Amino acid sequence: MELWDMKGHQLAEMIEKKEVSVSEVTRSVLDRIRSLEPLLNCYITVLEEESQTLARQIDKYIAQEGHPAPLTGLPMAVKDLICTRGVRTTCGSRILDNYLPVYDATVIQKLKDQRYLPVGKANMDEFAMGSSTENSYYGPTRNPWNTERVPGGSSGGSAAAVAAGEAIVALGSDTGGSIRQPASLCGVVGLKPTYGLVSRYGLVAFASSLDQIGPITRDVQDAAIFLNAIAGHDVMDSTSVKREIPDYTKALVDDVRGLKIGVPQELMVEGVEMKVRDSVNQAIELLVSLGAFCEETSLPYLEHSLSAYYIIAPAEASANLARYDGVKYGHRARGSRNIREMYKKTRSEGFGAEVKRRIMLGTYALSAGYYEAYYGQAQKVRTLIVNDFRQAFQKYDVLVSPTSPTVAFKIGEKVDNPLQMYLSDVCTIPVNLAGIPAISVPCGTSDGLPIGLQIIGRAFDEETILRVAYTFEQYFGFNQSPPLTNPGVQLTEDQKSQVQMSGEGRRR
Amino acid sequence: MDFEAVIGLETHIELSTVTKMFCGCSTVFGHPPNTQVCPVCLALPGSLPLINRKAVEYTIKVALALNCQIQSFCQFHRKNYFYPDLPKGYQISQYDLPLGRNGYLEINTEDGTRKVRIHRVHMEEDTGKLIHSGLTGRISEAQESAVDFNRCGVPLLEIVTEPDLRTPEEAKIFLSSLRNLLQYLEVSDCNMEEGSLRCDANISVRRGDMDELGTKTEVKNLNSFRFLSRALQYEIERQKKILAKGGVIRQETRHFDATTNRTTSLRSKEMAHDYRYFPEPDLVPLEISDQWVDEGRRSLPELPGAKRLRFMEGYGLPEYDAEALTSSRAMADFFEECAKRYHRPKIISNWLMGDFTSLLNATDTAVERSKVTPEHLTEMLKLIDEGVISGKIAKSVFEEMFNTGRMPREVVEEKGLTQIADEEELARLVAEVIAENEKATGDYREGKGSALGFLVGQVMKKTRGRANPELINRLLRERLGGS
Ligand SMILES: [Zn+2]
Question: Would you say the C-alpha torsion B321, B323, B324, B330 has a positive or negative sign?
Answer without folding.
Answer: positive
